[in-house]
């Protein structure tokens, strides 16, 4: 029955073109979305690069996610089938993950609250009816990679996240004797104490400068207090995160979009987003943050959703300047 979960007594044979059945130690649950639903769109923001060790999307449309929950490490597998989502979870965090499955997948989101004022956004919403804003309820797992993404190229940030999680995290719990799962190489990110014990040369090897590593170290010292932001309204949650030196509006917005499913957490201070929004809504690719916010003012309360739709529209200006210069602190 949808909404129930219980241990599987025995594995079932795999069906061609379908996800393999849960192993005996899996907990399972089914959830039926209340309307159109695109799993790839919904959980896509959790992906930090093509080799993210905490996230995989396989060719059959199944999403795998390794998390460090308040109950411990857990792995969640999500498979869309026949208009519903079949979930299986492993590890100490499995009950926590399954209990919050609907919330993760946007059950508390209200897409109908968005009222498009521009034709581009109306068309994109019509073409992407399965978009919902996810809500993980976990702050640190989104905050740390967002800090790593400050003022560097995405490739550099993704590499740092990959090296640090693989080097200091733990292998994700999952099906036993399951070669396909082993091939995914999923890892759970380190806990707060482990982050705090990473030596300086390991940060250096991962290409993380002292400013970003220092911000992460300050954040993990008060990880429990920061996790409380997941239950706060957006202004209070933003204020809580920004108490930490090195965490500003950009980082807190990028975090709360994922942890809180905040539809109004608009990203300011981004290198490209103002130009993308300006180009899409006003034909001005040279827009700055101030103009971006003015253009998004009609969508107050839903500004993050508006930017998601703009990005999904594909109506973005062609690059005319070099990308951010790639750094290499290993040579310093």
TrEMBL record:
Residues 1-34 are annotated as: Disordered. Signal peptide: none annotated. GO terms for biological process: base-excision repair, AP site formation; DNA alkylation repair. Gene3D superfamilies: Hypothetical protein, domain 2 (1.10.340.30). One of its GO terms (cellular component) is cytoplasm. It comes from the Bacteria. Residues 10-26 have a biased composition (Low complexity). Keywords: DNA damage, DNA repair. This is 3-methyladenine DNA glycosylase/8-oxoguanine DNA glycosylase. It comes from Streptomyces atratus.
